[in-house]
């Protein structure tokens, strides 16, 4: 029986290993983590992450060929294939601060593997890592090898949150990179055989190590670039009276471009896009490519500009001050169908409004009050460290309350900001909401989910990103 161990029981490690266990009943899969609370959650009825379909898979496999444990060293020593899925946060100090990936957790995982291994291992990079990480890991393992042979593979994940299980069941591609030696190719085949249990062979791509590592960063950079491109256009649409939905639809009809990732919004979020582009920028700078670095930097700058523009629009529309006013925030997760708040644009929008002394009432379908308070009081990049190394109990932000439904959040508010495209926000009773708000009542739709015309008929002043401006808004330009 092949034994697989995954170090790191997070958003990537947990679902990926659960699906491998389900699809490969002959393989024993152990997911290990030093966080006892996280492992306890994976062993409970309330899993630490929400993904459609994940619950059923874990319950079906747990106790058979899938186990979650804090006995890290034991399972690493027993495994044939070790997936490493640990945090790779952006450095906040020292060389490359604000851009480079911090590989502290990766290095300590590699040293631990070298310490406890008594048989040959295949070590698989599952976390998103900078190009040439595999080489560094290989050096650590070979210099501490005690005669044991290691093969390093890069097998980046391409999961989209909210559809992670579907993405694992039916991936566009599985990418495996390894050394171009006989041993390296043998290791690639071993991992390929695992995926071949359910993934068609023509979707399993094999490359060299560096290509696999760079492909992940490049894919995320291309996706983020599309969002920043459409968001840049949305600003121009507002200035000229064009409608971004119509422009995006027309552009997306070109088969060379396609319609995906062309929805204008308040900005992109999630754990990967910003981090991976910063990483790409740093790698370009280190390799003497400043022009390439500046090109990719602009993708993040447009994203920051879009969030600032949204905050400025809110403040300028409401007589240039939100001080002491209640603003309802509908949606805090970075996109619908997930409880994930990592790098969500809602954090920067909320902080911008709090900076102008607004009082916020926040409602999200999935995100807990504790998580919202934690996000609003944490420093940038802190979220990407293991939970036990994050600030223990962040002080709650006084001007922030968390509501249990949208009606409670909007009661007595001056304005509403829609920051996540949850389906329920499309079907709210806006007549009822309008009746319980201060007048004039504003809706700032950061996701283009509401029917702006219907809301205007009720009496709202509506701002939709990239759409022709309300007469009220034209009179109060948002100065950036």
UniProtKB/TrEMBL annotation:
Catalytic residues (UniProt): 272 (nucleophile)
Pathway: Nucleotide-sugar biosynthesis; UDP-alpha-D-glucuronate biosynthesis; UDP-alpha-D-glucuronate from UDP-alpha-D-glucose: step 1/1
Species assigned in the record: Rubus argutus (Southern blackberry)
Name of this protein: UDP-glucose 6-dehydrogenase
Signal peptide region: none
InterPro entries assigned to the protein according to its UniProt record, in alphabetical order: 6-PGluconate_DH-like_C_sf, NAD(P)-bd_dom_sf, UDP-Glc/GDP-Man, UDP-Glc/GDP-Man_DH_C, UDP-Glc/GDP-Man_DH_C_sf, UDP-Glc/GDP-Man_DH_dimer, UDP-Glc/GDP-Man_DH_N, UDPglc_DH_euk
GO cellular component: nucleus
Residues annotated to bind NAD(+): 8-13, 33, 38, 86-90, 127-128, 161, 272-275, 342
